[in-house]
UniProtKB/TrEMBL annotation:
<keyword id="KW-0812">Transmembrane</keyword>
<keyword id="KW-1133">Transmembrane helix</keyword>
<dbReference type="InterPro" id="IPR045770">
    <property type="entry name" value="DUF6223"/>
</dbReference>
<keyword id="KW-0732">Signal</keyword>
<feature type="transmembrane region" description="Helical">
    <location>
        <begin position="113"/>
        <end position="134"/>
    </location>
</feature>
<feature type="signal peptide">
    <location>
        <begin position="1"/>
        <end position="24"/>
    </location>
</feature>
<protein>
    <recommendedName>
        <fullName>Membrane protein (TIGR02234 family)</fullName>
    </recommendedName>
</protein>
<keyword id="KW-0472">Membrane</keyword>
<feature type="transmembrane region" description="Helical">
    <location>
        <begin position="78"/>
        <end position="101"/>
    </location>
</feature>
<dbReference type="Pfam" id="PF19733">
    <property type="entry name" value="DUF6223"/>
</dbReference>
<feature type="transmembrane region" description="Helical">
    <location>
        <begin position="46"/>
        <end position="66"/>
    </location>
</feature>
């Protein structure tokens, strides 16, 4: 089996896993609506974890972008770009699950504000990672 076939099979398995896990995650994220402002519910914990992952993706994407333009270090930044893309994608998937499972608005304990934050910061991480990856590939072709 070639590496491309292995990667394609792994991607299909991950997407299928997310598809099957979405109803279960929505059930776990569902909470009763009467919680305190500082209570850590499942929705808030998931959205906080995804926000931290997205923030790591933004930092790594920024560093990879700086490396690809030659500002920092001598590396090409490809690894950081790929990790930023993956972290942004995972954060956006978790954020979308949190938003989809929320039965109420802000302050109800479902983590909907964090879910929207995950979507925004995850998108930023993916954009930075994509830009860094494009620049590093362009510099490899030219050099």
């Amino acid at each position: 089996m070639s590496v491309r076939h292995l990667l394609a099979a792994a991607a299909v398995a991950v997407l299928l896993g997310f598809g099957l896990a979405a109803p279960a995650a929505a059930h776990v994220l569902a909470q009763p609506g009467d919680v305190g402002a500082y209570t850590l519910t499942a929705g808030r914990v998931w959205s906080l974890a995804a926000a931290l992952l997205a923030l790591v993706g933004v930092v790594l994407g920024g560093l990879a972008l700086a490396r690809s333009t030659g500002r920092i270090g001598t590396g090409n930044g490809t690894r950081g770009a790929v990790v930023a893309l993956a972290a942004g994608l995972v954060a956006m998937v978790i954020g979308a699950l949190v938003v989809a499972a929320a039965k109420g608005g802000p302050g109800t304990g479902y983590g909907i504000v964090g879910g929207y934050l995950d979507l925004a910061v995850g998108l930023i991480a993916m954009v930075l990672g994509g830009l860094a990856l494009a620049r590093s590939r362009r510099s490899h072709r030219a050099g």
